[in-house]
C-alpha cells in the first residue's frame, strides 16, 4: 500500500504548474533531459499537475543535478550502485542523482553491456514520486516499492501509485 511522508506534505502550486531545472554545470544532453520529461509526464497524466522545464535552475521548484561523492548536503553518494539518487519531500524540490552510476538512457548504446548500469527513467519516476509527496509502498509491482533490480526498466505507474498520488492531488 502507498504511503506519504509524516504530515502528508504536498505542493500547492499556482496554476497547478511546477517548474524543474537542470544544474547548468552538468551540461546534460537532450537525450537525458527528454528522459526526465518523459518521467514527469507519467505523473502529469494522473494528476492535475503539469511540469515545465525552466532555464533558471536556482529558482526552479524542482532542481535536478548529478553529483559524485560528498556534495554538501550531508548525504554523500557512494559510487557505483548502493544509493542511486535522492529526493526530498515537498516543498523541498532537491533531486540529486549519483553521477558515478552508469545510467542507461534510451537510445544510448554506451551502457548496453555494463552489468551494473541503472535505468535513468525508472529511477526518475520513483524519485519524482518522492518529490511529490509519496513515501515507499509495500506493493512490490508499484513504482514506489523500495527495491529495483539493476538494468530493469520499471516506469509504468501501477494502481497503487495512482491511488496514492490522487489522494494527495
Ligand atoms: N535512494 C533512496 C530512495 O529513493 C533514498 C531513500 C531512502 C528515500 N529512504 C527514503 C527517499 C525515504 C525518500 C524517502 O528510495 S536509492 C530505488 C528503489 C533508490 C532506490 O538510491 O536507494 C529507486 C533510488 F526503489 F528501486 F529502490 C531509486 Cl527506484
Ligand atoms: Zn544530495
Ligand atoms: Zn524511494
UniProtKB/TrEMBL annotation:
<feature type="binding site">
    <location>
        <position position="86"/>
    </location>
    <ligand>
        <name>Zn(2+) 1</name>
    </ligand>
</feature>
<feature type="binding site">
    <location>
        <position position="101"/>
    </location>
    <ligand>
        <name>Ca(2+) 3</name>
    </ligand>
</feature>
<feature type="binding site">
    <location>
        <position position="61"/>
    </location>
    <ligand>
        <name>Ca(2+) 2</name>
    </ligand>
</feature>
<feature type="binding site">
    <location>
        <position position="98"/>
    </location>
    <ligand>
        <name>Ca(2+) 3</name>
    </ligand>
</feature>
<feature type="binding site">
    <location>
        <position position="79"/>
    </location>
    <ligand>
        <name>Ca(2+) 3</name>
    </ligand>
</feature>
<protein>
    <recommendedName>
        <fullName>Peptidase metallopeptidase domain-containing protein</fullName>
    </recommendedName>
</protein>
<feature type="binding site">
    <location>
        <position position="144"/>
    </location>
    <ligand>
        <name>Zn(2+) 2</name>
    </ligand>
</feature>
<feature type="binding site">
    <location>
        <position position="73"/>
    </location>
    <ligand>
        <name>Zn(2+) 1</name>
    </ligand>
</feature>
<feature type="binding site">
    <location>
        <position position="136"/>
    </location>
    <ligand>
        <name>Zn(2+) 2</name>
    </ligand>
</feature>
<feature type="binding site">
    <location>
        <position position="101"/>
    </location>
    <ligand>
        <name>Ca(2+) 1</name>
    </ligand>
</feature>
<comment type="similarity">
    <text>Belongs to the peptidase M10A family. Matrix metalloproteinases (MMPs) subfamily.</text>
</comment>
<feature type="binding site">
    <location>
        <position position="96"/>
    </location>
    <ligand>
        <name>Zn(2+) 1</name>
    </ligand>
</feature>
<feature type="binding site">
    <location>
        <position position="78"/>
    </location>
    <ligand>
        <name>Ca(2+) 3</name>
    </ligand>
</feature>
<feature type="binding site">
    <location>
        <position position="126"/>
    </location>
    <ligand>
        <name>Zn(2+) 2</name>
    </ligand>
</feature>
<feature type="active site">
    <location>
        <position position="127"/>
    </location>
</feature>
<feature type="binding site">
    <location>
        <position position="130"/>
    </location>
    <ligand>
        <name>Zn(2+) 2</name>
    </ligand>
</feature>
<feature type="domain" description="Peptidase metallopeptidase">
    <location>
        <begin position="7"/>
        <end position="169"/>
    </location>
</feature>
<feature type="binding site">
    <location>
        <position position="71"/>
    </location>
    <ligand>
        <name>Zn(2+) 1</name>
    </ligand>
</feature>
Amino acid at each position: 500500500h502507498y504511503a506519504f511522508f509524516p504530515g502528508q506534505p504536498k505542493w500547492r502550486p499556482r496554476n497547478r504548474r511546477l517548474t524543474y531545472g537542470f544544474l547548468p554545470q552538468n551540461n546534460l544532453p537532450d537525450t537525458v533531459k527528454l528522459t526526465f520529461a518523459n518521467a514527469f509526464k507519467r505523473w502529469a497524466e494522473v494528476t492535475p499537475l503539469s511540469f515545465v522545464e525552466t532555464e533558471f535552475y536556482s529558482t526552479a521548484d524542482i532542481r535536478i543535478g548529478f553529483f559524485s561523492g560528498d556534495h554538501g548536503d550531508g548525504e554523500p553518494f557512494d559510487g557505483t550502485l548502493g544509493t542511486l539518487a535522492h529526493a526530498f519531500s515537498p516543498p523541498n524540490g532537491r533531486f540529486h542523482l549519483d553521477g558515478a552510476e552508469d545510467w542507461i538512457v534510451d537510445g544510448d548504446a554506451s551502457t548496453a553491456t555494463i552489468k551494473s548500469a541503472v535505468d535513468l527513467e525508472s529511477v526518475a519516476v520513483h524519485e519524482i514520486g518522492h518529490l511529490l509527496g509519496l513515501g515507499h509502498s509495500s506493493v512490490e509491482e508499484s513504482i514506489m516499492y523500495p527495491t529495483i533490480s539493476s538494468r530493469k526498466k520499471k516506469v509504468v505507474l501501477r494502481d497503487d501509485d495512482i491511488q496514492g498520488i490522487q489522494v494527495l492531488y
